[in-house]
Amino acid sequence: MLKEACKAKEVYGIEISEKGAEMARKNRVKCYQLDVDEEDFPFEDNYFDAVTAFEIIEHLFDPDHFLEEVYRVLKPEGIFVLSTPNLASIHNRIALLFGYQPFPVGV
Predict the structure, then answer these.
(1) pTM score, whole prediction
(2) Which of 11, 70, 71, 92 could tie 3 with a disulfide, CB 3.0–4.6 Å?
(3) Do 102 and 96 form a contact (C-beta atoms < 8 A)?
């Protein structure tokens, strides 16, 4: 969907699990299996026009390594879109009020 919305020629992915990488490949995403906490991205410097990272950075032990790799593979005028859960959102505050963990935290 993102490929179509952005009119991208190619879409690449990185997935920590081989099963997840296989699922992405079935959806015509050129996906690599690797641990972004420890491994370098398998792309040349200044390779991408855009990089997205949705709901991942909060799970990393070494986010600096991840961000350095994003910076390395992103073209100088490239776009980086990063998202992370909002633990202060109204639905999470209501969950806390009733004694539940915020939804992105899980148990």
Answers:
(1) 0.80
(2) 11
(3) yes
